Structures are given as structure tokens and as C-alpha cells.
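I'd like us to work through together how a protein chain folds, taking it slowly. We need material for that, and I hope you will provide a protein of your own picking. Go ahead whenever you are ready, and we will take it from there:
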Amino acid sequence: MKKILITGATGGIGKEICRLLKNDYDIYVMGRNQEKLDKLKEELPSLEDTFIADLNNRSSIESFLDTINKNNLEFDILVNNAGVTQDSLFIRMDYEKWSKVIQTNLNSNFLLTNFFSKQMIKKKWGRIINITSVVCHTGNAGQSNYTASKSGIIGMSKSIAAELAKRNITVNCISPGFIETEMTSDLSEEQKKLIMDKIPLNRIGQPKDVANCVKFLASDMSEYITGQTIHVNGGLAML
């Protein structure tokens, strides 16, 4: 079976991707919390291996990549799912909040994609799937750092897709809308209703809605799709 690496695997979307793909691929996961990784392994014992790395720390990422080299691991599919927020109105945002989000969401994506795309080039086959966000396209008050990081991934993905297409490697983004995860669990019922009133399908998305799209893009059914952003938002933003 093909090998797939999923970052941010202990979050709601990451877990659902693992659950949905567990019978079709050899799954390896990365996270920054060992306890959560251990729980995920207990829930899904079929996982091949778990890796701990802090995507905000370049040395941690490079240590992880050294481990990959030492174990002669090669991946066919990379799902860059990890992401953090450090919300603040722009005029109050300090450089630390800005740089942490850019490093974790965008710079780490570059480092991982740059490394694993070279493996895929040798095989002349690969899938790179980047999880972004609807707010990249609409903007969102208090999230200038987050939208900048995720928008940067979209632009980067298009350029990489153009470069790697001749090697039978596709690069695509999935842009979720409001998905029911830990990040949205603090919303009140009133806040959820206000959100749902803006969504034509009249419901907040579930992690499986994003995972289904990952499954499609990872498969041969998507072999003629590259450089694209697929929007999974229930019609919230029709782009």
C-alpha cells in the first residue's frame, strides 16, 4: 500500500482523515503532543508510526526529517493539515504572534513539502494535499496572520503544482469553512446559529466532510486535478 504522512493528526480533522483512510494506506502521523499521539495510536492501532515535532521550531522539524532519513522512510502522499491561530486585531498584533503563525502554518509547510516532494520526484508519483481555510478568500477580522499564512500556502501550491506536474505529482488545497472541531467548540448556540444562517446547507461542517475530500484527492480518481483549491464550506462562500 502507498504510504501517507498526515500532520496535525491529533486534531478533529486530522483524526477523521486517519479513520477514513486507515484501510487504504499505510498511515504515519505527526503531532506536537505525545499524550495525544499515544491516544490516537490506542484508538487506531493500525497506524504504522507516530512522530512528534513542533512545527513552530525549525530544529524540531529538521530532527524529524533526520529520523525519516535514518529509517529510510519514503512517502507517496503528504497531507499538510497542521495549523495554529494567534488571533488579534491587526493594530494590536505583535511580531511574536505574527511570526509564530507564519512559521507554524507556512514555513513548516515549505520545509516538509520541499523534503518529501524530492522523494515523490524519484518515484514519479505523488500527492500533496494542503489544508487551508475559507478565511483566506473572505478575510476575517482578527486573523491577519492566519489568513496570510494560509493564503501563502495556496499561492505556493499553485507554483509547486506547475513545477511537479510533469513528474505525475499533484498539489492541491482544501479550504474548509466552519468545521465542528475543538476550535469551534467554544462557540455559543447563538453564535452557531448566526453562522448557520449564513450557510446555505444550514449546518456546520463535520471533520468527515474534509476527510472525504482528502480521500478523493489522494486517490487515482483525482489524477487530472492539480493546482486547485476545493472549497468545503456548505456554500458559505461560493468562489
